[in-house]
Amino acid sequence: MSEVIVYEKRTCTTCKKLAHLLDAQGITFDRVEYHVEGLTEPLIRDLLRMSGVTAHEALRRREPLVKELGLTDPGVTEDRLISLMAEHPQLLQRPFVVRGDRAVFARPIEKALELFD
Q1: Domains, the chain, ranges and CATH?
Q2: Radius of gyration of the chain from its Cα atoms, rounded to whole angstroms
Q3: What is the reported pTM?
Q4: Does position 19 have pLDDT exceeding 80, yes or no?
Q5: Cα–Cα distance measured from residue 32 to residue 10, given in angstroms and rounded to the nearest whole number
């Protein structure tokens, strides 16, 4: 397995642009299509912790399920969001890029290059 892992959705335009950017920089990476493979709660917690992002910040707010489940309510806890992200991977923003013990939420995609400074 590569030293760099990209958690993505292959059909996502931003994820495709990130792949092109990393390729152009000569950075090899492994892909995890988390919408297909799923993510565990501990892994989601690790991604958020390593990238310094909260579950609220990583919530894909345009996802119809967010409204359906009332996830924009200020009383929704981080634990609840993480649990639901594990159950419904489409709730988690993308892409996340991991290199060793560091990660970034790559929005904009150029943020991924911070892992290589």
Answers
A1: 4-116 (3.40.30.10)
A2: 14
A3: 0.92
A4: yes
A5: 9
H or E element at residue 33:
strand 30-33
* Residue 75: φ, ψ to 5°: -85, -5
Bridge partners of 59, per DSSP, are 92
Number of H helices, E strands in the chain: 5, 4
Greatest distance between any 2 Cα atoms in the chain = 44
pLDDT in tens, 75-96: 999 999 999 999 999 999 999 9
Give CA–CA dist 86/89, Å, rounded.
Answer: 6
Residue 56 CB burial class (10 angstroms; 0-12, 13-18, ≥19)? middle
